[in-house]
Write a sequence for this structure.
């Protein structure tokens, strides 16, 4: 799919649209934009995300009250629910190890290159160390462990369960941004919604306990009243710090 707008044009075009026209959008294009979302950078290439593409008008009508009847939800032609799946870390780590097997046919450890050893160690030992937890207890001891080592040398300190949860949500947010920019490039509009009853949405979509909703993005074509005013940003000089 070729993108009609350049990256800069798409970023400038994108606005959070609250009211959409009663005009259908091409589901195939939205799906392709979701595919582009999967190309977003993500922590350790673990891809702890899922994208639930809601095209059923009946389901959208059921979800709107769970989004507190925001106009962006009520008038949406389609919805995309961005979901984190930190609970799938073992499965995704194994998938990465399979990718390593494809790059480096298995051989004796003594015959492995230094790069191969580093990658296998990363997904076989470091990732399990970072993600393993037991009701927060293991995470607490890991935090103490890395804090002690950190006295003597630089070390990754975000090893508690809550830290890894934040990692999954940051990663999912990057995918959502990819999606919204891709949609803007096609001339479609979106609105990221954090305000929702995530428990009810999870039940409606049949999501498992370990899944968490990162955001719900509504999709459509903007109505002239759908953009609430001119874009406002804090002056760039106030937020830009050259070091």
């Amino acid at each position: 799919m070729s993108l009609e707008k350049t990256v800069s044009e798409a970023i400038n075009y994108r606005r959070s649209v609250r009211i959409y026209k009663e005009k259908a959008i091409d589901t195939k294009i939205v799906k392709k934009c979701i595919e582009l979302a999967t190309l977003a950078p993500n922590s350790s290439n673990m891809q702890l995300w899922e994208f639930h593409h809601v095209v059923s008008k009946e389901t959208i009508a059921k979800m709107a009250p769970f989004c507190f009847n925001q106009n962006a939800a009520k008038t949406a032609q389609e919805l995309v629910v961005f979901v984190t799946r930190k609970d799938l870390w073992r499965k995704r780590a194994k998938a990465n190890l399979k990718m390593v097997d494809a790059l480096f046919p298995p051989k004796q450890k003594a015959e492995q290159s230094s790069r191969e050893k580093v990658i296998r160690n990363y997904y076989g030992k470091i990732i399990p160390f970072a993600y393993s937890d037991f009701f927060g207890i293991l995470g607490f001891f890991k935090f103490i462990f890395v804090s002690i080592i950190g006295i003597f040398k630089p070390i990754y300190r975000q090893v508690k369960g809550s830290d890894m949860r934040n990692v999954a949500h940051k990663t999912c947010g990057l995918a959502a941004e990819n999606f919204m920019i891709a949609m803007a490039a096609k001339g479609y509009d979106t609105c990221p919604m954090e305000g929702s009853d995530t428990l009810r949405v999870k039940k409606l979509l049949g999501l498992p306990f370990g899944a968490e909703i990162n955001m719900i993005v509504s999709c459509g074509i903007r109505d002239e009243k759908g953009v609430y005013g001119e874009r406002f940003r804090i002056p760039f000089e106030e937020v830009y710090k050259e070091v």
Summary: The chain has a mean pLDDT of 95. Strands lie at 49-54, 78-84, 189-193, 212-220. The first strand starts at residue 49 and ends at 54.
